[in-house]
Amino acid sequence: MKLSIKLIGILVCISLLTACVGLGGLKKSQIKVLQKEGFVYSDEGWLLDLPSRLLFATGEYLLQPAQEQTIATLSKKLEKIKLDKLIIQGHTDNVGTEAANQLLSEQRAKSVADVTFANGFQPENVQVVGYGSTKPTASNDTEEGRSENRRVSVIIAP
């Protein structure tokens, strides 16, 4: 009987520790804000794909004023809850050359990063990465799919 109680206690402790690790080591209050903003936990960490709020026209990397405001607001919320390390990933569809898409994806990520810098993030805490067309989330066979792939993702860095 005592062995069973000890075993159950150990299993409960392991479960609790596993749950904490699975949440990326963040506090519940931080997770609540991230989920409210649309972040989901993925194998990369807490990820916010911004296609619904941040899409680009073919060949474009400049943000519209409404998009800048969205990123500024998000930046302030993240800073408020002490999440000040980001990985910003730029993506493209498969239209154009590989080299052009690589550069364009980097420019897209940088345009988002620049807004975070203007709103309190330190450049040394923001990693900017371009993936070109190598990580599509939709098929590039349709205009709708290509549109979804012209995006920026924001990941909360550990």
TrEMBL record:
Spans annotated as Disordered: 130-152
Domain OmpA-like, residue spans: 44-158
Gene3D superfamilies: OmpA-like domain
Sorted UniProt keywords: Membrane
Alphabetical list of InterPro entries matching this protein: Bact_OuterMem_StrucFunc, OMP_bac, OmpA-like, OmpA-like_sf
Protein name per UniProt: Outer membrane protein OmpA
PANTHER family associated with the record: LIPOPROTEIN YFIB-RELATED, STATOR ELEMENT OF FLAGELLAR MOTOR COMPLEX
Stretches that traverse the bilayer: none
Primary localization class, coarse: membrane
GO cellular component: cell outer membrane
Presence of the UniProt keyword Manganese in the record: no
